[in-house]
Amino acid sequence: MQLSLVGDYAVIVHTEARPTDDAWNGWLDTYRMRMTELRGVLIYSLGGGPDAEQRRRLLDLLERSEQVPPTAIVTPSRLMRVLVTALNWFLSPKAQGAIFAPTELERALDHLRVPASGREPLRAALAQTQETLERRKAPAERR
Known about the structure:
The protein has one domain (2-142): Transcription Regulator spoIIAA (2-Layer Sandwich), CATH 3.30.750.24. Helix content is 51%, strand content 17%. It contains five helices and five strands. The chain has helices at 21-34, 52-64, 78-89, 105-111, 116-142, and strands at residues 2-6, 9-14, 40-45, 71-74, 97-100.
C-alpha cells in the first residue's frame, strides 16, 4: 500500500496483497487528521485491500466522523468489487465508496468532483505511486 497526498486529495494504491498494519495505521492516522480538509480519496487496487480487522477500524472511523470525503475505488478485481459492495452495506450513505473499472478513471474523478485543472496532478500521482510499488515488488520477485 502506498499513500500520497495531492493538494486536498488522497491517492492510495494497493498491490494484490493486503496492506501491512503499519501502512494501514499510517493511512488511518492521516485520514483522521486530514478528513475535514480532503475533497476526495482516490484508491487504485490490483486486488489487495484491508483485512477484516483493518476494515473494522476503518468502519469505526467513518461512522464516528461527521464529514467524510467522497471515495472512488478503481480496480480490475471482481473480488474487490464484491468486497466494496458488501462493505457499503454496513456504511451510512455519507461514508460509502463508489467502485469503478480501470477504464472508468474519468468517471471516478467525476465522482470525486475533481475540476479539469486538478485531474492531471492526480493522474500523475497515481502513475508515480504505481511505479513506486512496482519497483519495490520487482526485487522481491527476483529472489
